[in-house]
Amino acid sequence: MPDLRLMIYQAMMWKRHKIRLEANRNTHELRYIFFEVSRRCNIHCSYCGSDCSSAERDGELSSEEWISIIDQLAEDFDPRRVMVAVTGGEPLFKRGIYDIFEHLHRRGFPYGMVTNSTLLDAEAARRLVSCGMNSISLSLDSIPEVNDSIRAKGTARHAVEAIGHLRAAGYKGVLEALSTITKPCMPHLREMQQWLTELGIRRWRVAPVIPVGRALDNESLLLSESEVRELLSFVRQARRFEDDVVPEFSEEGYVGDDYEGLVRPYLCQCRAGINVGGIRYDGKIGACPEISSYFDQGDIRKERFSTVWRERFENMRDRSWARSLGPCRQCDKFDICRGGALHLYEDTRTPTRRCFHEMLKQS
């Protein structure tokens, strides 16, 4: 027999959620912005969504241009209210990256970066601390032997060493592990949790590999329907206890009432273009760097970000176009999911590449 109290609670929960999402879409206050400072990277992950390489791409913004962008954003927005996520490629592979970090700190932006850890030695740790970095996400997918087979040999060791260097340098900001979960990672979730706990990591974000970039050419890495359910069940169970590192599932899409509200500290949402903006390595203005270039809204070399943010992004803030595509056409959860994560769409005419809600029905 259905639990009436639970049904009432869930109905109220989703009603508040829809009101909050609508308010965010209407005000679209910028709260988070990605700086994809480069597509250069010193390793070659098997699933890379950006297909990064060691070569610098044509048209890459210089560190001087990024500094000018920081000044522009500081003039047009309240820096204290906008978190900057510096990503790549590998940010520490970018020429002049510490000048960018120092300027972000000088202008009052809270900021962090995602790094593969290979360049985060003792000197780098000291410089990051002196630059006032607030958050560091270490890309670490699984236990060492599995991680290195997916990413690059020695990357797990580099991550462990980076943690030690940061602590020795007196780093006090957020330090988290960011795991892209591929099929080889699945048998080792509990081992990974134990290892991160031993390393003293308290935050662990897990995200099923996105079927874009190199992952599209390597389907053996993608999770099956049953593995998605297994991962969600693991996260739900693990979040009940605080003795070990607590995992947090990615933002991608509605995951059903068995898991919503239990696998992450918020309900399903995609804030791309609503509260989240982004600038690509070549100056194109959009949101998350993993989103298709179809959704680019402008060019920072030609116009101010604030103007583009204020006057465009219609196809991100109004997702009604997704209602007529693929599984969204018949879905009774569209009003709370709004088509899921934008990084799963090639354009506004092609269905999503993946729907967890549908996958869970099939598992």
Strand content: 5-15%
Q: What class would the helix/strand composition place it in?
A: alpha/beta
| Strands, total number | 10
Strand order in the sheet with the most strands: 7-6-5-4-3-2-1-8-9-10
Q: Quaternary status of these chains?
A: single chain
Uncertain stretches: none
Distance between the termini: 23 Å
The largest sheet is:
10 strands, mixed
Tally the helices: 12
- Helical content stands at 25-40%
User: What overall form do the CA principal axes indicate?
Assistant: globular
Mean pLDDT: 94
Rg over CA atoms: 20 Å
**Helix and strand string, N-terminal first?**
HEHEHEHEHHEHEHEEEEHHHH
Structure description:
Helix 4 packs across helix 6 (155-168). The protein has twelve helices and ten strands. It has helices at 4-27, 63-76, 97-106, 122-130, 144-150, 155-168, 189-199, 225-238, 305-311, 314-317, 334-337, 356-362; strands spanning 32-36, 83-87, 111-115, 135-139, 174-181, 203-208, 246-249, 276-279, 284-286, 298-299. The chain starts with a helix and ends with a helix. The model has no long low-confidence stretch (mean pLDDT 94). The protein has a ten-stranded mixed sheet, with helices on one face. It has 363 residues and is an alpha/beta fold. Strand 2 (83-87), helix 3 (97-106) and strand 3 (111-115) form a beta-alpha-beta unit.
